[in-house]
């Protein structure tokens, strides 16, 4: 059997990953500061690590040319090595330093992780072509990083130091962030689903509903949150009983309202497209079998439309992760607490304490819902 080799485009992806890694070896990897706010000194990798980084960065695309089956393992090793250097170099930087000293990741690390991430992506695509265990080798970095985290390898990194100080508050704000996302997505789905069904059957309704939802999207999230303060305050003052259930001009109520309005467009748009995109032949066949309109909708149209519709819900969920961060400005809480606290105090590590979990949350939600889409598509394909 002929050996599977990367296409020219895939080989280009591997080189695009190698170039940032090569540049990263020449840049500072750690910023050492006497405290979280003071200016500090940039530290570079030792010579031995620089040589290792250059060799590994070049090995990934060269292996794609000569030993393709080694690419997934090498790419995963490159990403893991970046994580190892993060912990080891920040730990070394803090040796003999005062208690309040901070060792932050610098440009070299972020550029290395960018290049290694591109390489892992390319290795994953190649692994699917190679088959066997090769696709899984490109994911070895994930258990490796989890293991490093569990043994405390990153304890010296400034973001982890901030987490240690803010641990109780972090759990509270993460829970609030998830609460806002889940409830806003649930409300948008409950409101958007029947509207999408109605709009899919009436062109005039479709234009009106999608136009209004699209108009909301043009309003900046911060402006929309501000616009909701006055009417909700009036409503709470007019009906004091509403305050007992948490409705007021600031806090969770305006945040959930704004987030629900933002999430409506992808839910509505994908729902309309999905329902209209069901093959007329499938509906005619169902009608020929004697199904009623309700039976055709629940047993044929909705199951066939669900994977595409779920794609809109996934887009809404990922978008809501970012909008929920802004909600902190009106007292709704969430990971935005750390982001805006860091901006106010000029503490980059505190910003990362809110931004990194938010980014990981968005990636996790996207992967989870994308997997659900694929599962539904596979099951429906077998029917």
Give the secondary structure arrangement, pairings included.
Layout: H1 8-24, E1 30-33, E2 41-43, H2 47-66, H3 71-93, E3 102-105, H4 107-130, H5 134-137, H6 141-150, H7 158-165, H8 167-201, H9 203-217, H10 221-238, H11 252-276, H12 280-288, H13 293-326, H14 336-345, H15 348-382
Antiparallel strand pairs: 1-2, 1-3
Helix pairs in contact: 1-2, 1-4, 2-3, 3-4, 3-6, 7-15, 8-9, 8-11, 8-13, 9-11, 10-11, 11-13, 12-13, 13-15, 14-15
Question: Explain this structure to me?
Answer:
- This protein has 383 residues and is an all-alpha fold.
- Helix 8 (167-201) packs antiparallel against helix 13 (293-326).
- The protein is flat.
- It starts with 7 loop residues before the first helix and ends with a helix.
- It has helices at 8-24, 47-66, 71-93, 107-130, 134-137, 141-150, 158-165, 167-201, 203-217, 221-238, 252-276, 280-288, 293-326, 336-345, 348-382; strands at 30-33, 41-43, 102-105.
- Strands 2-1-3 form a three-stranded antiparallel β-sheet.
- The model has no long low-confidence stretch (mean pLDDT 88).
């Amino acid at each position: 059997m002929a050996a599977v080799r990367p296409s020219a485009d895939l080989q280009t992806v591997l080189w695009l990953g190698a170039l940032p890694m090569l540049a990263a070896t020449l840049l500072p990897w750690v910023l050492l500061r006497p405290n979280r706010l003071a200016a500090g000194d940039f530290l570079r990798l030792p010579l031995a690590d620089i040589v290792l980084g250059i060799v590994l960065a070049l090995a990934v695309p060269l292996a794609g040319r000569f030993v393709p089956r080694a690419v997934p393992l090498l790419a995963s090793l490159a990403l893991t090595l970046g994580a190892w250097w993060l912990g080891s170099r920040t730990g070394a930087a803090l040796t003999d330093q005062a208690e309040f000293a901070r060792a932050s990741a610098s440009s070299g690390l972020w550029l290395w992780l960018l290049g290694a991430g591109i390489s892992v992506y390319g290795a994953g695509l190649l692994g699917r072509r190679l088959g066997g265990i090769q696709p899984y080798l490109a994911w070895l970095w994930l258990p490796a990083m989890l293991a490093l985290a569990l043994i405390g390898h990153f304890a010296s990194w400034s973001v982890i130091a901030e987490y240690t100080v803010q641990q109780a508050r972090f759990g509270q704000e993460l829970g609030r962030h998830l609460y806002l996302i889940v409830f806003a997505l649930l409300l948008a789905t409950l409101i958007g689903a029947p509207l999408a069904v109605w709009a899919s059957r009436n062109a005039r309704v479709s234009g009106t509903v999608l136009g209004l939802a699209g108009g909301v999207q043009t309003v900046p999230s911060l402006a929309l949150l501000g616009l909701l303060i006055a009417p909700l305050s009036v409503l709470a003052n007019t009906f004091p009983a509403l305050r007992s259930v948490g409705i007021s001009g600031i806090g969770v109520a305006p945040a959930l309202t704004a987030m629900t309005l933002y999430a409506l467009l992808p839910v509505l748009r994908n729902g309309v497209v999905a329902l209209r995109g069901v093959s007329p032949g499938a509906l005619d066949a169902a009608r020929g079998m004697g199904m009623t309109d309700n039976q055709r909708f629940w047993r044929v149209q909705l199951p066939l439309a669900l994977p595409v519709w779920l794609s809109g819900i996934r887009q809404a969920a990922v978008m809501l992760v970012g909008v929920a961060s802004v909600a902190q400005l009106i007292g709704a809480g969430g990971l935005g607490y750390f982001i805006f606290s860091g901006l106010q105090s000029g503490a980059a590590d505190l910003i990362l304490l809110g931004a990194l979990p938010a980014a990981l949350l968005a990636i996790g939600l996207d992967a989870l819902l994308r997997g659900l889409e694929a599962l539904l598509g596979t099951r429906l394909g077998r029917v």
